[in-house]
């Protein structure tokens, strides 16, 4: 399934809007569409932050398919850090 994600980011005072189309797994999307779209948007925002050189970034608005606001859901996502240390 394809979803259209739109982000409005404020990178050090410069606001920018970007729109992209992403493929998501049907099974995951049917189970929880908001979370699946939020994870996809989070990953895309992280790539946008890398492209900007890790400058100060504020997520202002995130939507999928133009009418589903997932801004707060995206802000709640945190990466899972695997702890493989022996101590």
What features would you describe in this structure?
- Helix content is 36%, strand content 34%.
- With 87 residues, the protein is of the alpha+beta class.
- The protein has one domain (2-76).
Mean pLDDT: 93
Largest sheet: 4 strands, antiparallel
Helix content: 25-40%
Shape: flat
What's the SSE pattern?
EEHHEEH
Number of strands: 4
Distance between the termini: 43 Å
**Number of spatially distinct domains:** 1
Number of helices: 3
Strand content: 25-35%
Structural class: alpha+beta
Features:
single chain; 87 residues; alpha+beta; 36% helix; 34% strand
Concise account of the structure shown:
Strand 3 (57-64) and strand 4 (68-69) form a beta hairpin. The chain has a four-stranded antiparallel sheet with strand order 2-1-3-4. It has three helices and four strands.
Describe the secondary-structure layout.
Elements: E1 2-11, E2 14-23, H1 26-31, H2 33-51, E3 57-64, E4 68-69, H3 71-76
Antiparallel strand pairs: 1-2, 1-3, 3-4
